[in-house]
Amino acid sequence: MSEQKIALCLHGYFGTLSENNFETSAGGYEHIKERLLSNNINTDVFVHCWQPEYEGKINEYYQPVESKLEKQIDFDAVCKLQGISQDYIDEGFPRSQTMYRNAIASRILSFYYSRCEALNMAINHAKKNGFEYDWIVTTRFDISQRGGSEVNLIRFHRDQDNNFLYTTFWNQMNSGYGDMWFYGSQKIMSEYSTIYQSALSDFTPNSKYEEFVTRLGVLDSQMFNWYDSTDYRQFSNEVLKPQEQKSKQLMRFPRWRVTDSHLHHKWFCIKSGLYEKTRWV
């Protein structure tokens, strides 16, 4: 196989913000080196990061072709400007008292914005220089350091057909995508890179996405008992079944689940045509 041209796009905080732990980036680097960089010499790195103070360490680890390091944008203000109301989404739900306290629109938009900035750097670099990347990989700096092994270990195989969007195989595909890493061709990842713009309208009141989550029911899901975390029906991975065996009773979630990046990824991929091009590895 001829040497393929690969772009790695890193985004977000340099460590694990939810745990206020910025040492996790070292473990993330070792994982990325093992799973990608050491086996693919012809890899360009592109970086968007919310912590300019880590520029030296980022350059030491990754020697990016291009990077943008900036202070955190106020996405609460962005939400207000776009008409996105967390109060509306959370009506009657005490989010701050639950494990979902960080699953809010402003944080998801911050995540998407940073990811898309890094992706667009790679895409624009290739266009400017008259070539296309065979593969573009997107992930976070602390990959492998949080979450379970079913979602936090990159499984990149460059001998696959790059005309698909690759992401992790896990037992919660009914509820969406494990969103820590994705890869595909430059064309596929260009389509994926519109997720931030999509979210700006998807999170507004009475959007088609809200209807999908709360009223129509989530495609390739199965109704389960929301109050029973062990209910096996939520783990049935309907997408893998033949059409005639899929559940006809789709899961409808309460409105506060709209700000769930796993669910939103599923909606976005359905809407953009990437769902049928997804391969779970």
Detailed description of the structure:
With 281 residues, the protein is α/β, with parallel strands linked by helices. The chain has one domain (6-79, 102-204, 261-280): Spore Coat Polysaccharide Biosynthesis Protein SpsA, Chain A, CATH 3.90.550. The chain is built from ten helices and seven strands. The strands form two sheets. It has a five-stranded mixed beta sheet with strand order 3-2-1-4-6. The chain has a two-stranded parallel ribbon with strand order 5-7. The model has no long low-confidence stretch (mean pLDDT 95).
Give me a quick take on this structure.
By secondary structure, the chain is of the alpha/beta class. It has helices at residues 24-37, 55-62, 75-82, 86-89, 105-128, 149-152, 186-192, 195-202, 208-216, 261-272; strands at 6-11, 43-49, 66-69, 135-140, 165-167, 181-184, 278-280.
Ordered list of secondary-structure elements with their pairings:
Elements: E1 6-11, H1 24-37, E2 43-49, H2 55-62, E3 66-69, H3 75-82, H4 86-89, H5 105-128, E4 135-140, H6 149-152, E5 165-167, E6 181-184, H7 186-192, H8 195-202, H9 208-216, H10 261-272, E7 278-280
Parallel strand pairs: 1-2, 1-4, 2-3, 5-7
Antiparallel strand pairs: 4-6
Helix pairs in contact: 3-5, 5-7, 5-8
Notable characteristics:
281 residues, alpha/beta, two-stranded parallel sheet, five-stranded mixed beta sheet, 7 strands, globular, 10 helices, Spore Coat Polysaccharide Biosynthesis Protein SpsA, Chain A
